[in-house]
Structure formats: C-alpha cells, structure tokens
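Quick one, tokens below. Sequence please?
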C-alpha cells in the first residue's frame, strides 16, 4: 500500500487527504496549526505532531502549503527525515521561480520531485475530482499514479521538467481569475444601474456567454455570503505569480495587474480568508 504524507491541511490539503483515505491509501497528515489536522484523524489519518516523524515512512510526500517560502521552510525539516526513495509531489501554486527553487531543494537532498499543481477547489478536492497538471520524469509516473488517481478525475502530464505543470496551471488560473473579476464587475454594474443582478445571471444562463463557475461565484456575490473554497488571499497571491510569468514571457500583464489590485485591496480590507468572490465589494457592491 502506498503511504502518503500530506503537509498542509488547509482547505485543499484536508480535502486531498480525505480523498486519499477514501481510496484506501495510508495517510499521515501534518499542519503547522494542528487543530486543522486533528479532524482528519476521525477519517483514519495518522495526525503527526512534528514534520520529521510525519515523513519518516512516506513513499510520497505531498505538499499543499500557501507559497514557495512556506513549502521551503517545511521541507528543510522534512527532507533530511525522508527515505531516499520517497517522491515529493508539490501541489500548491507557487509560480515558476518558486517551482524551480523547490525542485533544486529536492535535488540537493537526492529526493525525486514532481511538479503537480491542481485545478479545482474545496469540493473537487474532497470528492477526488481535481485535475492534476503534472510535470516530472516519466520513470516516476507509475509510483505517483495511485496518488493522482485518488485525488483527481484526470491527470494531464504536461512534460518531464519541474515547472511544466505550473506553466499550464498559471495559464488556467489566469482565465479563472479573469472570470471571477468579470462576473464581479457585471454584478456590481447591474446593481448600480438599478436592476436585480440575478437578471444578469439568468440572461446569460445556457447561452454562449454562460459559465458554470461564473454562475456559482455570481450567486455568492448576490447572496453576500463567501464561505471559502478559494480564498481571496490565494487569488491575490496567484495573480502576482501569473503577472510575473507574463512579464517573463513578454506577455502584456495589464489586465492581470488590474485584477491583482482589486483582489489585494479587498484582502487588505480584512477579507483575505473569505472566498475570492468577495472581490465584488471592490467594485462598489
């Protein structure tokens, strides 16, 4: 049986851990704030009290931490305690530079590394229906397939180099964040023009302009309720990473920078842990 350690049990990490357990894998979890990891014990996870012991017997170490700095700090402790045949599967969105930095950290310790960010939020993580965007050597694929099959409905192997998965992830998230910003703008404008914003969502429903994700986030904006599936802090972080990649490739980053300013402003107003759909408040709604 594949033994997996999940480091980071926030919204995504906890859902991933539950999907791994549902698939019959042996799962150990660790989180800096242990209260976020303890509930997973009820589902059969081993809740570790420290990083080193959590990874000691792991075949796969899966990280779902907030950013590259957090991952690097945790893995500074984890890697020396890991078996040399362990594989580090890095699932958080950390950007191209962050991925290169973490891959180098793994290489220095002689640990195999797979770049595997995911598409999906809380519910797909909990139901094992994420899309895994993977970059790593072909020789590692068989070893990580049980993990990817447990957490995802689909795995896309983008290439064999660290960062290949992230390139596709940043492109996908640029679309996702643009959808959220666009829906927020339209909801706020409809309301500002004196109309019920629901009429906007109803009008586009089922047509070429419709989008299931836009309908979902739009309803949250109209209801004014923002339970987190993808936090605003995460959206602000990812928009920065996307803009950096755009500048690196010579792609115009003005739209992404404008989105980032909206996400960051509303986050700074105290909404960073709410769902990113709360960005509607930045448009005056």
């Amino acid at each position: 049986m594949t033994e997996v350690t999940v480091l980071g049990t926030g919204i995504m990490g906890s859902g991933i851990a539950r999907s791994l357990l549902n698939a019959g894998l042996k799962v150990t979890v660790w989180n800096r704030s242990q209260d976020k990891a303890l509930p997973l014990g009820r589902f059969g996870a081993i809740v570790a009290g420290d990083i080193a012991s959590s990874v000691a017997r792991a075949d796969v170490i899966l990280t779902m931490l907030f950013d590259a700095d957090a991952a690097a700090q945790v893995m500074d402790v984890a890697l020396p305690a890991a078996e040399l045949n362990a594989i580090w599967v890095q699932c958080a969105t950390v950007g191209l530079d962050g991925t290169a930095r973490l891959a180098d950290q793994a290489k220095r310790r002689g640990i195999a590394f797979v770049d595997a960010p995911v598409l999906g939020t809380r519910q797909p993580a909990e139901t094992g229906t994420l899309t895994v965007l993977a970059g790593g050597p072909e020789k590692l694929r068989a070893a990580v397939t049980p993990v990817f099959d447990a957490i995802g409905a689909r795995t896309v192997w983008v290439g064999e180099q660290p960062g290949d998965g992230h390139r596709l992830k940043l492109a996908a998230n640029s679309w996702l964040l643009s959808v959220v910003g666009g829906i927020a703008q339209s909801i706020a404008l409809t309301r500002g023009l004196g109309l019920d914003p629901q009429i906007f969502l109803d009008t586009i429903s089922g047509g070429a302009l419709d989008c299931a994700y836009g309908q979902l986030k739009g309803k949250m904006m109209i209801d004014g309720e923002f339970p987190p599936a993808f936090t605003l802090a995460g959206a602000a972080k990812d928009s920065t990473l996307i803009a950096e990649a755009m500048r690196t490739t010579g792609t115009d980053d003005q739209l992404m920078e404008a989105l980032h300013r909206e996400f960051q402003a509303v986050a700074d107003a105290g909404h960073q842990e709410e769902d990113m759909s709360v960005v509607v408040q930045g448009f005056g709604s």
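Residues 164-192 form the longest helix (29 residues). DSSP finds eleven helices and nine strands in the chain.
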